[in-house]
Hints:
Helix content: over 70%
Number of domains: 1
Keywords: Membrane, Transmembrane, Transmembrane helix
Largest sheet: none
Radius of gyration: 25 Å
Organism: Lentzea atacamensis
Order of helices and strands: HHHHHHHHHHHHH
Number of helices: 13
Protein name: ABC-2 type transport system permease protein
Shape: globular
Distance between the termini: 62 Å
Amino acid sequence: MTIGHPPAHPAVQAPLVNVPWAVRASRASSFWRLVAVEARKLVGSRSDKIVMAFAPLFLIGVMLLFTLPQSNLASAGRQLQPMLVVVQLGLLLVFATVIKLVAGEWQYKSVQPTLLVQPSRMRYLVAQATVLLGVWLVCTLFTFVLYPVLIEMAADGINHDYLLGHRQGWVLGVTMLSTALVLLTALIVSLLIPNTGGSLTVFFIVVPLLALARMLLPEVFGLIYPLEAAWHLAGGGTGWVQTISSLVVWLTLLGVSLVVLSRRDAG
C-alpha cells in the first residue's frame, strides 16, 4: 500500500505585529487625541462653522445693546451687573453649538464610534469636558476684555466715573462664574435630554423664563435660578439662602445627569 503524502495544511498566516495599521489599531487612543476629536465635532458641520463664526459678532452686538443705553451707572454694581445679562444672552450661539455637540451625539447615535474605540464613558465625558473648559476660557477672556471697554464708554457718555478699573479681580471673578454657570446649565440640559431640539427648547425658553420669574419674585425663584451665585457675587443677589439653594439644585442636577449618562443605551 502506497503511503501518500499527508494532506496539505493551509499556510499559517504570520502575526500582524509589524503591519503599521495593525500596530495603530492595537494601541489605545490617547486622551488628547480624544480631546482633539471632540473639538472637531464642535465645528463638524458647515452650519456649526457658520454659527461659531457669527458668535463673536452676536456677543458684541448684545454687549452694545446692554451697555451703551445705560442711564444709571453711579455704582460699581450697576456697571457690572449688565454683564450677567450679556453672558446669558450674548453667548446663546456658543451654547447652542455645545448643546448640539452633547445632545446630538446621543440622538443620532454618533457616539457609537467613539465608545467603540474606547468604551470608557467617563474618559469620553472628561474629553468633552476638556473641550468645554476651553470654550469657557475663550468666552470668559473675550467678555472680560471687551465688556469693561464698552461700559466705560457708556459711563463717560453720561458723565459717571468708571468704577471697575481698580476692581479687575472682582470683574474677572464675576465673568468666570457667570460664564461657567450658564455653560454648566447648557451641559446639564443636554445630558438630561438627549435630543437636540428638546434641549435647545428647554435652554432657550425655560432658562430665560426663570430669569424673568427671578426678576419678579427674587426671593422665590432665586432658589432655583442657575445664575443666582453670580448675581450674589456681583452685588445684586437676593441672599445667601437663595445662592446656596441654587448651587445645591444645579450641582444635584449635574450629579443626576452623570448617573443617567453612565446608564444610557448607546445602541
